[in-house]
Specification:
A three-stranded antiparallel beta sheet has the order 2-1-3. By secondary structure, it is α+β, with helices and mostly antiparallel strands. It has four helices and three strands; from the N terminus they run αβααβαβ. Helices cover 48% and strands 18% of the residues. It has a single domain, classed as Ribosomal protein L7/L12, C-terminal domain/Adaptor protein ClpS (Ribosomal Protein L30, Chain: A, 2-Layer Sandwich).
Length: 103
């Protein structure tokens, strides 16, 4: 008995155009840090101060937003820079993603 494989469906033209509409090159991008069950609040504050250079009150405000609301936008700008920030947050052990800023 052989294994039958079905080819994966390729996205249609309409789907590709819709995707292009959703990614607006004029809008900025954001680095979002998400709450996790591992890192202490003091460590998250430390990371925000060390990496981004935030003063203690700003780092603590962002950390509390992560803690109470589940996430916080910690940077906004060009996509490539936000990807670098996100990778840095991963290197520190934090959960982070990149998203396009809302209009």
């Amino acid at each position: 008995m052989g294994v039958m494989m079905t080819p994966l469906a390729a996205p249609g033209v309409d789907e590709e155009i819709d995707l292009q509409r959703r990614v607006d090159p004029e809008r900025s991008w954001q680095t979002v840090v998400w709450d996790d069950p591992v890192n202490l609040m003091s460590y998250v504050t430390h990371v925000f101060r060390e990496y981004f250079g935030f003063p203690r009150p700003e780092a603590e405000r962002l950390m509390l937003a992560v803690h109470h609301h589940g996430h916080a936008v910690v940077a906004e700008g060009a996509r490539e820079q936000m990807e670098l920030h996100t990778q840095a947050m991963h290197d520190y052990g934090l959960w982070a993603t990149v998203r396009q800023a809302p209009q």
